[in-house]
Design goal:
Blueprint (H helix, E strand, L loop, with lengths): L13 E5 L8 E3 L2 E3 L4 E3 L8 H10 L1 H7 L3 E6 L8 H10 L14 H4 L13 H15 L11 E5 L8 E5 L7 E9 L5 E9 L6 E12 L3 E9 L1
Antiparallel strand pairs: 1-4, 1-5, 2-3, 6-7, 7-8, 8-9, 9-10, 10-11
Helix pairs in contact: 1-2
Amino acid sequence: MSNFAPYIKKYGCFIVRNVTPDRNKTISIFQYPINFNTTRDLLLIPGVSESDIRASLLKGELRHKILAKDIIIECSDIDLVQFNLGQKDFLQNAGVSFGLAVGTPQITSELNSRISTDGYSGGFSEDQHKTLRDLIHFISGGPGDGFASGAERITLPAGDPFPTSITWYLDSSLTTKLVEKLIVYTINQVPDTITWNMYNTAGTSIIHTIVDTFTYVNNVFESSRIRTIS
């Protein structure tokens, strides 16, 4: 790991999920454990840099665990453009959709159709676009820039390894919702759909929703997902 990356990152994500066929198996990446069906943002590990992740994807433990079907990649918005076409296909099959091409990050076709050359007039106002961007940031972590400190996250059912509801509240009073994540599982206890709802400032009305619908190989290994944004 890099001596030049000793601190916690502020932006970016590289989140992997343990989907190993052995459901009792805890795997380790960069010496940090990941329990079955739980995730870890590797960029939150002190000392792990983007270059460490790129190298590991080329010929390290990340590549090995992807090939062994131990992990899938749930979020990646770091620059991976050093790879050749074969590696690009490998990463796309592992779940990476961003950072694989020179230029601006790839955007889903549905969102792209709503954003014209000026950035907003295709259907979203500037404020709406910022709200959607904030929602996407919540997917990879939680409240950050523009949100007050003191937000609290509640996971339900409490203590269940397969939670169906994860909600960020404005504070410990738990009266004002910021974002909620709702998970529906298949019979094999892998997500069938994941829905993120972004609430207005009053915490009463949903103003943006993102829904991921999953497809699996052998009922366990994610092969594709469709993202709907509204």
